[in-house]
Design goal:
This protein is α/β, with parallel strands linked by helices and about 400 residues long. Helices cover about 65% and strands about 5% of the residues. The chain folds into 2 domains: about 150 residues, abc type-2 transporter like fold, CATH 3.40.1710; about 190 residues, no CATH class.
Length: about 400
């Protein structure tokens, strides 16, 4: 037992001596736990998912307020949104994620429905005019649309059922059996229509496929993992002394780093081609929608990823440090940016913070062109920021580059 204890203490000293390994060993699980804790912190019927919706209430009746309260009880976070022109276009352009519009006459329609049930003994769908609730969904964030639609519909139906019971109890206070029977009649007939709008604004009628929604994020994520191989290659050549031998020739540092960047970019293009082929043949990803813009996005991702790898190589001194640093950095950036998880699941402050990563800007450009079907000009700012990321990475790497 003593010999076992000696070996154990020796290994523990070695483990705790490497601070970078400790950060990777303990920091990454903590970051993941905190991140998923913030995402899955909701309550109620959402199964712990955090859902939020902004409500514009044109009716301002007791029934509309009750519907909002029922949504909150179901676990939806509700934010009030003042009426404003062009709200549908703003949602489709990604300025808002999910907006529920309650029209004028909503409460009166529920009253009419409940009274019709009482007077005719059945719910006649032609006895009153049904107002249309409208749920506007960002075309680039439709992952939770089905859950949200069902919960909004359920909240409105609970409001209607409560109103019907109130009418029946008032008319027949002593007849619980009649109230129960009449409450069951027509329970599948709603006094409203729930319209869901998640269509893009562009003139192209190509409907996004699961590949359009899932593959671009994965492509961006794996393209940035090139930073790992770029950094490790530079560290290995420094260790073997090949960097010193190359720089002893008439070769400048900028030429050396540029050559490495272009070599890795070529590998990145081959990797990109493979991922796109897999997306097309396995998930029916469209490659005919904004092909020039999409190609430019991916090429700029390769440019930024190689620049990031060169910069990381100048910060770390050993292969272990590089692997720990890059793995943790890229995993966290992939989660924060929405490449690995739908952005609609992320808390609002995390969606804002995510724009410190090049991944988020690349994904925004993809969403605008591929899912929202906006013009190429809408992606110019994200593309410029992505190019700026790569340039800054490369300039910093060149400034910090040392042979030893």
């Amino acid at each position: 037992m003593r010999s076992i204890g000696i070996v154990m203490r020796k290994d523990l000293k070695l483990i705790f001596r490497d601070r970078t390994a400790l950060i990777f060993l303990f920091g990454l699980p903590v970051i993941f736990a905190l991140l998923f804790g913030m995402i899955y912190r909701g309550k109620g019927g959402t199964g712990a998912l955090h859902l939020s919706v902004q409500v514009t209430d044109y009716d301002r009746s007791a029934e509309s307020r009750t519907t909002v309260q029922n949504m909150q009880k179901a676990g939806i976070t509700v934010h009030s949104l003042a009426p404003q022109p062009g709200i549908a276009k703003k949602v489709q352009h990604g300025n808002f994620h999910d907006v529920l519009i309650i029209p004028a006459g909503y409460g009166a329609s529920i009253h009419a429905w409940a009274h019709n049930t009482l007077s005719s003994g059945a719910s006649s769908s032609n006895a009153f005019s049904k107002p249309a609730l409208t749920l506007l969904v960002d075309p680039a964030q439709t992952q939770l649309e089905g859950i949200l639609t069902a919960m909004v519909n359920g909240a409105a139906m609970r409001t209607a059922s409560t109103e019907k019971v109130r009418y029946l109890v008032k008319a027949f206070p002593a007849s619980r059996s009649l109230i129960s029977a009449l409450t069951q009649q027509g329970k599948k007939t709603a006094p409203f229509v729930l319209n869901v709008n998640d269509k893009a604004t562009g003139t192209r009628s190509v409907k996004p496929t699961p590949g359009d929604e899932q593959m671009p994020g994965l492509i961006i994520y794996f393209l940035f993992f090139m930073a790992n191989s770029v950094a490790l290659t530079l560290i290995e050549e420094r260790k073997e002394g090949t960097l010193r031998r190359m720089l002893s020739s008439p070769l400048s540092s900028s030429s050396l780093l540029t050559g490495k960047l272009l070599a890795r970019a070529t590998v990145g293009i081959l990797q990109l081609s493979l991922l796109i082929l897999l997306g097309v043949f396995t998930m029916h990803m469209h490659i005919t929608v904004a092909p020039f813009g999409m190609a430019l996005i991916y090429l700029l991702c390769i440019y930024a990823a190689t620049g990031m790898g060169l910069l990381i190589a100048t910060l770390g001194r050993t292969q272990e440090q590089i692997q720990g640093m890059v793995t943790m950095l890229l995993l966290v950036m992939g989660l924060f940016s929405g490449c690995l998880l739908p952005r609609v699941l992320l808390p609002k402050f995390m969606r804002q913070v995510s724009y410190i990563t090049p991944h988020a800007w690349a994904l925004k450009a993809v969403d605008d062109l591929l899912l929202r079907r906006l013009n190429f000009t809408s992606a110019l700012i994200p593309l410029c920021v992505l190019f700026l990321f790569g340039t800054v990475f490369y300039v910093l790497a060149l400034a910090r580059f040392r042979v030893d």
